[in-house]
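step 4 of 6: structure.
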Amino acid sequence: MLEVSDVVTVYGKIEALKGVSLTVESGGITCLLGPNGAGKTTLMMTIAGILRPRRGSIRFDSAELVGSTPAQIVSRGIALVPENRLVFPQMSVRENLAAGAYQRSDTGGIAGDMERLYERFPRLRERREQLAGTLSGGEQQMLAVARALMCRPRLLLMDEPSLGLAPIVVDEIFRIIAELNRDGTTIFLVEQNAYKALQVAQRFYLMEQGRVTFSGTPGQLAEDEVIQRAYLGARRAAG
Amino acid sequence: MIDVVQNTLDGVMIGSSYALLALGFTLIFGVMRRLNLSYGPTIMLGAYLGTLLYVQGGAGPATVAAATVLGAAVVGVYVERLCFAPMAAGAGIASMVSSFAIWMQLEQAAILILPRHTYAFPPLTTAAPLTLGPFLVRLDHAAMLAAAAALAAAVHLVLHRTRFGLGLRAIVGNATAAHLVGIDVRLSTLAAFALASAVGGAAGYLVLTVDQQVTPMFGMWATFKGLIAMMLGGLGSIPGALAGGLVLGVIEAQAQWYFGPQIRDFLTFAVLFLVLVVRPTGLMGEAPSADAAAPGRA
């Protein structure tokens, strides 16, 4: 579904991605693990069109994405739930969801989707007229996911959805990820919580210092080693 | 007491045009997080277009108003393309400095179009003032207040009831997230610039109908008044911009009456200074959030 080949992205003066290639298969949950600074967020921002790669190609259903604007990429069916959620703080929950449907004009469909999302996230319904900036971290994460779903993506990119959340909320987030995937959304997930991610993913990649250093299925590499490398990077783990 | 009330009345009416100037300034600042110093000269050049039609073609008030507003919008688009769009990812200071350079260019353009120092600007009405008990109300002042209130309400409706407005508020909230929900941020920003410059053009038109004359210096005047009103009210806050404009108008009217025009400007800047010392975010501004302060990736 998504094919990233040899992508090099320079962020500031740093070559954050040094030739990344990976594939996200349709229908599944693919996970990208790696320590801080490995380039995971840079890759997500590059796929979403926020950052422009210096080299390489990103194909979505065999159409080239490199050179498209973020808005064009959204219209092709890719949505990113960004790191740190980035909800619109001065807008209500309902307006955040409406902004998620910015490219759509089917009023009835938008209202129906909003209703379904309120059913999936009852807390958002309770707080729908509240400003998003006043929500708790977990609620903001739910809102960020719901906002991304409002554009009916076929591929949902999620960047560290569990970051900074209480364990019980993290469980909730991963339950939702599994549910969304069961309902037919392909998911490409960046996580620091390797233990949780490996429970839901069918396939994972390990990224270290701007390169993919391992790919496989959960269980293919000893869980200890994956987790150690995901958190610390290979060199320090070895040493 | 009657003087105080009369001055307040005058101040609110004049202040309504400052409020409109500040509203346009704030729209640009909110969407881009950049100061557009050539905002006033943009309005001035729009007004020069109106003046040209008046001086050379004898155009009526409606034509002059339309030419001023549309002219300002077009010049605003020019400024955005030249000073802001190419530097969208660069330092904010570069945009501010280049908007200052464009300021000089716009002034020279005005002088090329109409080379004399001063030109007449058509008044809205020359009817005698209304008498309300002990108070006098100039009709053009009253029209200024009514038009400013209507325009502020219209901007509010655009921001809160239209898809375009939803997109703008999303950009103000978080530009990266606005990209991610599929908003064409560059196009929306350009449209916001045009809208803000048009609002400024309307404010400029209303002020000039009262002044009944225009010079190239009007640009500096408009940037000053808009900037002071915006800073008083709070950077980036629309209610703050409107309140700041009215407060500025009232302070000026009182100071003018009691101390004369030199002390008036001295006092205005003293008040701005005090407000910024006591409340650096302005009267109604909020402390910038951590997100807003962080440099955007986009």
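step 5 of 6: annotate
 - The first strand of chain B starts at residue 119 and ends at 120.
 - Residues 84 and 95 of chain B are 6 Å apart (CA to CA).
step 6 of 6: archive
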